Every structure is written in structure tokens, then in C-alpha cells.
Amino acid sequence: MNALAPRPVERGRPAGRTTRQRSAVRRVLDDCADFVSAQALHERLATMDLPVGLATVYRTLRELERAGCLDVVRDETGERRYRKRPDDGHRHYLICRACGRSRPVESQAVEEWAERTGRLSGYAAVEHIVELTGICTRCRRDTPERPDGGHG
């Protein structure tokens, strides 16, 4: 095996050794109710006096993502945001563009469509990304109406 090639990742188990810093990243991520950016996660670690470098945060998130332990979405600027994947597997979320709050949504039809599309086209290991965004009721309530009847 090429020494520079990434090590294989066992599903659900990140590659690499477990260090105090990586454990801290996982603990703080476990406590995040909504999606969080690597930068925000790094800031939370710092405010908790858990000295973890930003590169270690990114590396740990990348390993957790490759191991299937995280759900990942992109915000309106394209920044990746992370959330611990529930034990029952991959989910899709509706995410508020104003505050970032998220909620899981029923997506069985999407899963069936992706599986069927892969099968009919002869592809294997098909992956998909579905991102739903909107403005949650709390943010709509907090946004003043414009004279034309719109919001924001």
C-alpha cells in the first residue's frame, strides 16, 4: 500500500488514533443540537478551555465524515456545516437560512429514488445530497415586513 494513500475507513469508525483533542472535538460535536461549522466548533472548544488546533478540528471532522458519523450540509456561503449522524443513519434536513436551526424531514421518497436511479443506470455505491432551506417560523416572526408585503 502507498504510504501516502489514505487508510481504509471502517464504516462508523474514524481512521487514525484517538487523541485527547479528537475526543474533545467529538464530545463538543455530540452536544451541538444543530449543524455547526468547523470554525464555530473550534471557538466552542476554546471557550471551554479545550486547546485544540483548528487543523485538528478539520482533520477530525473529515475523518468522522468519511466514517459515516456526520451529516454535512453547506450554508448559503458554501461553508460546510456538521452534525452528528443519528444512530439510525443518514437523514435530510430543512435548515433555516437566517438562524441555522435545522429539523429532520421525511425523505424516504428521496432514498428510494436515489437507489432506483443507481440501479437502473448500473451504478453502485450511489450517494446523494439534498439540501432544503427556508426561513423558520421564529425568524419570519422576527423579520419586519417590507412595504411591498415581502419580508427582509
Provide structural commentary.
With about 150 residues, this protein is α+β, with helices and mostly antiparallel strands. It is about 35% helix and about 15% strand. It has five helices and six strands. The strands form two sheets. Strands 1-3-2 form a three-stranded antiparallel sheet. It has a three-stranded mixed sheet with strand order 5-4-6, with no helix packed on it. A hairpin with a 5-residue loop joins β4 and β5 (about 100-105). Mean pLDDT is about 80; it is low at about 1-10.
Give a quick set of tags describing it:
5 helices, single chain, three-stranded antiparallel sheet, 152 residues, alpha+beta
In short:
The chain is α+β, with helices and mostly antiparallel strands and 152 residues long. It has five helices and six strands.
Draw up the topology in text.
Elements (H helix, E strand, L loop, with lengths): L19 H11 L5 E2 H10 L6 H13 L3 E5 L5 E5 L7 E5 L5 E4 L2 H14 L10 E3 L2 H6 L10
Parallel strand pairs: 4-6
Antiparallel strand pairs: 1-3, 2-3, 4-5
Helix pairs in contact: 1-2, 1-3, 2-3
How are the strands of the largest sheet arranged?
1-3-2
Structural class: alpha+beta
What is the average of the pLDDT values?
81
Strand fraction band?
15-25%
What count of helical segments does DSSP give? 5
